């Protein structure tokens, strides 16, 4: 284990030093500027040049980004930097997430033209770029969000200025440098993907209000998403969720227990789609808990310990304490005096429905379980604790009517049936991936066409061959 860590550290050092030499060459080749104004101006020029390039050029740029980032040393570097710098999540899960966004974020194939033909001719609806997009990226999924935003935004003909979270500076800058290395080698216009050397909230604000930024995309905590959505510009907001998982008496309980622990413990619960509370019917709760424990869950049954945990990880204002977000279960247990093995990946306990653990999204490997009488109560409570975020919900059941009822009533962007939450972003589930899930503004799982304007082109009286 120690040896493996040493090898990975060596890889990280090598990659970082290689791209730092690239840095020394010139600002333009790595996409990082000293001020936000310079970055936006450069991206503006870059996008103008991109408009003169072909769709096959754009395809090539995306392919080159994928090829560069899929190199083993780069995947390892971004994953290790992400885990170490933010202190959140798990290196080996970040490897899965980074590979996922590189492989499963759609490129130009997402931009399918709509056509209407008839006696009056042919009308096309095309996906056209906005221009320069300003993208806010989070500390929870720093490289993943930059990669999936970049692929979608460039595919649809935009350039992008990133304002990364200040606690993920090195990871974000390294991702941007690697992307620029790939774009330079592919012969792309300079400065399609840019950022600044010292990200901060002030620089993010400059970006938000810059007149040359035509669209804003915010992936982050509630405060920053609120700022962007009140900017008066076209904005896409991907913010908080609090995904409930419902289990009824018809479910395959053994599988449900494993799926829930797999999903909720993924990257120590920081993905916004991860299971955050379980609502299960009385008839099967005990067996569900028994099977969760077989799959790496540690059950707290003493009230005093649960209270100790509450005081440890939740602020007096009822919010998650950042220093515990994305930490290992064994680390958190240790702080309340419980020594647990490293294969313990989740802390579980029974809770009341109005417990802060249930109603607040904590993004920690802590999973409260609420016992209810029947599936109808479970669905109603899931809707209540999801809190109108319309983000993600999960249900384990074999009752098709109830699965349909919950999917319809809860109105979440993602609804996963009988699988771990991450199936909803394409891990072991069909469909493309993204880490920018726009519930509040309704775009859903963003992709290239989300970052494009729909424009109509009308040819009168011709080309109808029906
Ligand atoms: N650039 C610059 N500043 C940023 C920023 C960015 N990209 N993102 C956040 N900030 C700012 C905030 O506005 C805030 O500024 P302030 O101190 O002046 O108020 C500061 O950084 C800290 O914000 P935040 O990280 O949200 O606060 P926190 O440390 O209390 O919370 C988390 C940590 C992990 C709970 C929080 O970041 C969060 O909820 N993240 C979820 C992100 C996510 O993945 N959402 C979308 C899923 S689809």
Describe the structure.
This protein has 466 residues and is an alpha/beta fold. It folds into two domains: 2-239 and 444-456, Aldehyde Dehydrogenase, Chain A, domain 1; 244-430, Aldehyde Dehydrogenase, Chain A, domain 2, CATH 3.40.309.10. The protein has helices spanning 2-25, 27-30, 36-50, 55-70, 72-86, 91-104, 142-155, 169-185, 201-209, 222-229, 253-265, 282-294, 303-313, 329-335, 356-359, 375-386, 400-410, and strands spanning 32-33, 114-118, 121-129, 132-137, 159-164, 193-196, 213-219, 235-238, 244-247, 277-281, 297-299, 346-350, 366-372, 392-396, 414-417, 437-438, 444-445, 452-460. The strands form four sheets. Strands 11-12-13-10-9-14-15 form a seven-stranded parallel beta sheet, with helices on both faces. Coenzyme A binds next to strand 4, strand 5, helix 9 and helix 10.
How would the blueprint of this fold be written?
Blueprint: H1 2-25, H2 27-30, E1 32-33, H3 36-50, H4 55-70, H5 72-86, H6 91-104, E2 114-118, E3 121-129, E4 132-137, H7 142-155, E5 159-164, H8 169-185, E6 193-196, H9 201-209, E7 213-219, H10 222-229, E8 235-238, E9 244-247, H11 253-265, E10 277-281, H12 282-294, E11 297-299, H13 303-313, H14 329-335, E12 346-350, H15 356-359, E13 366-372, H16 375-386, E14 392-396, H17 400-410, E15 414-417, E16 437-438, E17 444-445, E18 452-460
Parallel strand pairs: 1-6, 4-5, 4-7, 5-6, 7-8, 9-10, 9-14, 10-13, 11-12, 12-13, 14-15
Antiparallel strand pairs: 2-3, 3-18, 16-17
Helix pairs in contact: 1-5, 1-8, 4-8, 5-6, 5-8, 6-7, 7-8, 11-12, 16-17
Bound molecules: coenzyme A.
């Amino acid at each position: 284990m120690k040896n493996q860590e040493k090898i990975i550290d060596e890889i990280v050092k090598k990659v970082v030093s290689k791209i730092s030499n690239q840095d020394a060459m010139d600002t333009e080749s790595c996409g990082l500027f000293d001020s936000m104004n310079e970055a936006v101006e450069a991206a503006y020029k870059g996008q103008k040049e991109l408009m003169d390039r072909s769709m096959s050029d754009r395809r090539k740029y995306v392919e080159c980004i994928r090829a560069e980032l899929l190199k083993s040393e780069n995947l390892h570097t971004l994953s290790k930097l992400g885990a170490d710098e933010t202190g959140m999540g798990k290196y080996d899960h970040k490897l899965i997430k980074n590979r996922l966004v590189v492989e499963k974020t759609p490129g130009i194939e997402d931009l399918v033209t709509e056509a209407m033909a008839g006696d009056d001719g042919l009308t096309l609806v095309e996906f056209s770029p906005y221009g320069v997009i300003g993208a806010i990226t989070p500390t929870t999924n720093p490289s993943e969000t930059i990669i999936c935003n970049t692929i979608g935004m460039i595919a649809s003909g935009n350039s992008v200025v990133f304002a990364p979270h200040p606690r993920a500076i090195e990871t974000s800058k390294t991702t941007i440098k690697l992307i620029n290395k790939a774009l330079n080698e592919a012969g792309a216009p300079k400065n399609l993907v840019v950022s600044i050397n010292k990200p901060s909230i002030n620089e993010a604000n400059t970006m938000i209000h810059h007149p040359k930024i035509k669209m804003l995309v915010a992936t982050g905590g509630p405060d920053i998403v609120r700022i962007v959505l009140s900017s008066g510009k076209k904005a896409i907001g991907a913010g908080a969720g609090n995904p409930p998982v419902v289990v009824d008496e018809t479910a395959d309980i053994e599988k449900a227990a494993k799926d829930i622990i797999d999903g909720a413990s993924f990257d120590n619960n920081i993905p916004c789609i991860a299971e955050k509370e379980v609502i299960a019917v009385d008839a099967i709760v005990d067996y569900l808990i028994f099977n969760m424990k077989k799959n790496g869950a540690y059950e707290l049954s003493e009230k005093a310990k649960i209270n100790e945990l509450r005081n440890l990880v939740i602020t007096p204002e009822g919010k998650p304490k950042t220093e515990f977000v994305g930490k290992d279960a064994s680390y958190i247990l240790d702080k309340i005096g419980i020594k647990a093995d490293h294969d313990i990946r989740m802390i579980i306990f029974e809770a009341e429905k109005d417990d802060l653990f249930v109603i607040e999204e904590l993004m920690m490997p802590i999973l409260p379980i609420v016992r209810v009488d029947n599936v109808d109560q479970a669905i109603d409570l899931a809707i209540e604790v999801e809190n109108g975020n319309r983000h993600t919900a999960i249900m384990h059941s074999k009752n098709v009517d109830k699965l349909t009822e919950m999917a319809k009533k809860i109105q979440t962007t993602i609804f996963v049936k009988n699988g771990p939450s991450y199936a909803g972003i394409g891990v072991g589930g069909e469909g493309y991936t993204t880490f920018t899930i726009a519930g509040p503004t309704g775009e859903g799982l963003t992709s290239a066409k989300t970052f494009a304007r729909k424009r109509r082109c009308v040819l009168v009286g011709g080309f109808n061959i029906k």
